[in-house]
Structures are given as C-alpha cells and as structure tokens.
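Hallway conversation turned thread

IA: we were arguing at lunch whether anyone had actually written out Tetracycline resistance element mobilization regulatory protein rteC end to end. Turns out nobody had. So, for the record, here is the sequence (277 residues) and right after it the structure tokens. Reply here if something looks off.
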Amino acid sequence: MIEYIANLKKEVDAKIELIESSEENILKRSLAGSQVLGEAFNRLKVFVLAYTFKDEEEEIIFFKDIKPKFCYRLIYYRKIYNIEMNRPMAGVDAQKVYLNKELNAINRYTTKRLDFIRYYRSGSTHLDSLYFLRGKLFTEQYLETFYYELDPVFCTICDFKVAKILANDMLLPYLMQELELLDNSTSKLGSFYFPSTKLTWKGTKTELMEQLYSWDTASTFGNVPLTQLSDYIQNVFNIRLDKNLSRAFSDMKIRTNPTPFLDKLKNALLRRMGRNQ
C-alpha cells in the first residue's frame, strides 16, 4: 500500500506544481487542480476497495493520515473555484462582505468541532479506533447532513472532518490575502472614482509583468514602490502574479526578445494609426 500511495502522491504533486506555476488565472488553476486531484482520489478509492488492510493500525493510518491528505487539496481547489466563480464583480465593499462571509463560515465550522480539532491537533490516539475505523457510528456523526452521502466502505466517521480542517487551514490565508489586497486598493484609491465592475486581464501573466515593469521604470504612476503597484494592478485586473517579482524580471531579461508584448502593442497601435512599417 505504501509504495502505491507514494507513487500516486508523487505523480499528483508533480501535476499540481505544474498547474500552480502556470500563467493561468486562479479559476483555471483551481479547476485544473480539482480535476487532477479528483482523478487521483478515484484511483485511490479503487485501490483501497481491492486492498485488505493488514490490521486495524494500518486502517487507522490510512483514514487518519493518508486519505485526508489526498482529499483536503481537492476540497481546497473546489472551494476556491466556487468562491471565485461566485465572487461579486462589484466594488471593493461588496467583495469584502462576500469574502468575510466565507471566513465566518470557516470559523463556524471550527467552533462547532472544537473538541475533535483539539483531539486531532494534539496528536491524541485514544479515540482513533472510533474515529478512523470503518463501520463505527455515534450520534454526533449520525446527525451530520452529509452522512448519508458517505460510502461506508471508503469512509470513517472522521476522515472527511480531518480533510476539511486541513483544507480550511489553506483557505484561511487565501481569504485573508484577498481581503488585504482589497484593503490596500482602498487605501490607495482614496476618494477617486473606481468602476463598479472589474475587468479581467486576458493576456498572460508574463505580458502583464512586462507592462508592469515598463510602468514602474517610467514612473508612470509616480514614485510608487513596485510591490505596491503590483498589488494594485493584480486587484484592478483580477489576476494573481508571481510573488517573486525579481525572478520574473530576470526571466524576462534573458529572453531572445525581452519585450515581445510591448512590441506587439506598439505594432497594433501603429496599424490603427495607419502607419504600418
């Protein structure tokens, strides 16, 4: 079992890393990530249903540690996809209300399950046979709304709960960062008019980085730090750029043509002016 799972995890990690390093926007990346993880999850299920655990200890390890670590990223990517799909294309205040509702939902989930979370995070094991062996049942879990959707041969009463806790651990910083970006944009905008509908950048991230550095180099927005300008542009154009701006700039410098996007813009403008060269 260990060898099969290690190979499957290695394969999945490589695909996810490729997706995360791509220049696609968050919607496309979260959809692609959930598809990769959904497929891996199905393969894991097929394997386990045909596998006989050596003993209860191995079964507990699988449902307490291994399965949740496959499942939580699937929950995370699906949640991110739904959050961004339903995010209001409105002003900053409406988006902050929406994101804070998501944060509150996570906090409510955590508050209702504090006893279990303390048990799991403390590394306790005395209730593992109840929580992480199949075929167990107790009242609290029986009343969970999703209980009837669980597959009794591939689920225990708490493995999904662990996956959900781990997924929330990833969702929280994502939501906090999005709120911080909105706060930063508000403080920078001051009382200036801002369109109620955000436009989404349709070019690649590299093209926007090329544009960003040209604005920064020419001080188009005044004496604004590059990181501040980057945060603003990401919020305005509804896109997330590489956090390591210096690395992105170094990559652009070593290209055969270091400014293909700016050249394309210039040529397009000249054609529009009827001054084709």
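OS: looked through it. The chain has two domains: 1-189, 205-273.
IA: good, adding that to the notes. Residues 56-86 form the longest helix (31 residues).
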